[in-house]
Amino acid sequence: MDKSTLRQRARNLRKNSTDTERHLWYPLRADRLGFKFKRQVPIGGYIVDFVCLEKRLVIELDGQLSTGLNLSK
């Protein structure tokens, strides 16, 4: 997949995030944890769910597992 296609797909994923992604995004965004995170970012030929570039940390949610998570606890 070329870069422009990946970027467009990442934009679409940000617009149509899952409930689990939205719940996890709240504490990650706006430096609430002291680090800057981005969501749905193209890296290489992949689109990762969340990334902290400073710490070189990628968070990927597995659709099958993430549907059962209760992040409100």
Automatic annotation (TrEMBL):
Domain DUF559: 6-64
Protein name stated in the entry: Multidrug efflux protein
Phylogenetic classification of the source organism: Bacteria, Pseudomonadati, Pseudomonadota, Gammaproteobacteria, Legionellales
InterPro entries: DUF559, Endonuclease_DUF559_bact, Restrct_endonuc-II-like
Top-level taxon of origin: Bacteria
Gene3D superfamilies, per database record: VSR Endonuclease (3.40.960.10)
Pfam families xrefs: DUF559
